[in-house]
Amino acid sequence: MNPIISLTVPAKAEYVDMVRLTLFGFANKLGFSYEEIEDMKVAVTEACTNVVLYAYSNQQPGSIAIRFEVGEEGLSIHIKDEGSSFKYEHSDHEHASLHDKELSEVTAGGLGIFMMHALMDRVEVLTERGTEVILTKLIGRKEEMA
Q1: Phi and psi for 115 in degrees, rounded to 5?
Q2: What's this model's pTM, rounded to 2 decimal places?
């Protein structure tokens, strides 16, 4: 059975640290390097911050459901809210560049998604009921690429 850790925190900035601490402990136990863990922490912080800032803006305070799931390929981190969804247009962020754009051309929230793609091996965004961001970091990817 693959390990799964779940937690639900209020969608408030002061609780994002709890998510980061849980991620650190779990990813460290799985053998990820310090650099990989730091990359994951930044990506998860971006996803959680998007929930805090945008998902429940005109509603009662909501929550963020986090699920850390180990699969054969690596660690997947699900960040889910039940707030307002947004229209996510998938583009090839993996090969995207900001070099040909002025900062004023980058849309709000666009840098967060861009950073998630830059730091993680796989990023999925589901916007059917609320929003769910699934961030995946593959195990042993560096060795395979060498």
Answers
A1: -65, -40
A2: 0.81
pLDDT, averaged per 10 consecutive residues of the chain (146 residues), comes to 90 96 96 96 95 82 94 94 73 46 48 89 91 93 44
Closest CA relative to residue 135, chosen from 65, 49, 57, 69: 69
For residue 143, which of 23, 44, 36 has the smallest C-alpha distance?
36
Q: Where are the domains of the chain?
A: 4-145
101/73 Cα distance (integer angstroms): 34
Q: Starting from the edge strand earliest in sequence, which strands make up the sheet with 4-10, in order?
A: 4-10, 63-70, 74-81, 131-138, 122-126
Q: Is CATH 3.30.565.10 the classification given to domain 4-145?
A: yes
